[in-house]
Amino acid sequence: MRYEPISNSLFKRNRAKLQKLLKPLSIAIVNSADSMPRNGDLHFSYRQHSDLFYLTGITQEETSLLLFPDGKEIVFILKPDKLRETWEGRKLTEAEATSISGIKNVKYTSDFEQELKGLAVKAEFLYLNKNENARYHSDVETKDDRFITKVQEWFPLHHIERLAPLLCSLRL
User: What is the pLDDT of residue 157?
Assistant: First the structure.
């Protein structure tokens, strides 16, 4: 099924509403969902994490978003690669990611860790996302679970905040 594109003004408004709820000196981090393996060399059809889609409109795997209370925003996407595209399909260009999301600052996923570590030294609070729905339980560790563990190792002195309650209030 094919749909008309959603105007990036919707995603811009969604991000602006969230940014107003963030504490000063903070960074909100939202990651895409995992690609789920079907067998050794095939994945199930990909479905983006609903919160990341709500904020960016991007449906591509291995995407991350950094939001700051001052309006600054960075989206990280996979770098297009012809060989990878043979097996996994076409990936967004920087211009396409900007067109879809309205975010001008687009970088590649390969730069995410270094960028986050550089920016986090100026932050006190890190907002991390996790599915907190009481009806949800997964025996499989999620990308959000793995990321939270990494962030706690990288930044043990930062204050970790829950992003889910903020997003839940906005998405109602």
Answer: 95
pLDDT value of position 55:
97
Q: Which residues contact 59 (CB under 8 A, 6 or more apart)?
A: 46, 48, 53
Rounded to two decimals, the pTM is 0.91
Are 76 and 114 in contact by the 8 Å Cβ rule? The answer is no
Q: Please give the Cα distance from 23 to 126 (Å, whole number).
A: 9
β-strand pairing of 159-162 with 125-128 = parallel
Q: Hey, is 3 helix, strand or coil?
A: coil
Q: What number of CA atoms fall less than 13 Å from residue 164's CA on the CB side?
A: 9
DSSP string of 66-88?
A: EE-TTS-EEEEEPPP-HHHHHHH
Summarize pLDDT for 80-133 with one digit per residue, the tens.
988 888 877 889 999 999 999 999 999 999 999 999 999 999 999 999 998 777
Q: How many CA atoms lie within 13 A of 51 on its CB side?
A: 26
Helical pair 143-154 and 112-120, crossing angle rounded to 10 deg: 50
Q: Among positive and negative, which fits the CA dihedral 95, 100, 106, 107?
A: negative
Q: 3-class SS at 160?
A: strand
